[in-house]
Hints:
Number of domains: 1
Number of strands: 0
Oligomer: single chain
Radius of gyration: 17 Å
Helix content: over 70%
Number of helices: 5
Order of helices and strands: HHHHH
Amino acid sequence: MSGFLVGAATGILSGFGIGGGSLLILWLTIFEGTAQYAAAGINLLYFLCCAPAALVSHFRNHLIDMRAALWCALAGCITSPLASLAAGAIPTGWLRRLFGVLLLVLGCKELFAKTESPGRTSR
């Protein structure tokens, strides 16, 4: 039952763009004992189910820069196979450490980033 609740909660957070996938990986590796490589694969499958609903919502609300999305998709198609091969060659302990560092860097960036108030334009 706890797996269902965690899945539902991280799915909802993913739909809002909060990073539910990162929370799912943490849950799987820390509390469920899943290997990092397997948890990342599960997260990718999970993302395929959550992403379409979020994409439709963002598209309807005109929140997608189509030019930037095209460049990101192109970069992802090129780098994803290479990153997959690299992740398969890196020991699980290092993958966990690298993922932890990534989360810390992103968290600090978000914590200390300057944001504009909605409706205000910068001069």
